[in-house]
Amino acid sequence: GYGGVTLPEWVCTVFHTSGCDTQTIVNNNDSTEYGLFQINNKIWCR
């Protein structure tokens, strides 16, 4: 068995971070977050 995050936990995360909207963009003071998981442009691919 897989011991990681369950599907219901991923769905809950997506619901609370982006409202399940793939087009969600949030502008913060000095960064921007994109998509379902609100991936931050300052820390992505470091």
From TrEMBL:
UniProt xrefs under Gene3D superfamilies = 1.10.530.10
Tell me a GO cellular component. extracellular region
Tell where it localizes. Answer: Secreted
Keyword tags? Secreted
Q: Give a GO biological-process term.
A: defense response to Gram-negative bacterium
> SMART domains annotated for this entry?
LYZ1 (SM00263)
The record's comment on protein family reads: Belongs to the glycosyl hydrolase 22 family.
Q: Which PANTHER family match?
A: ALPHA-LACTALBUMIN, LYSOZYME C
Q: What is this protein's name?
A: Alpha-lactalbumin
Recorded source organism is Stenella frontalis (Atlantic spotted dolphin)
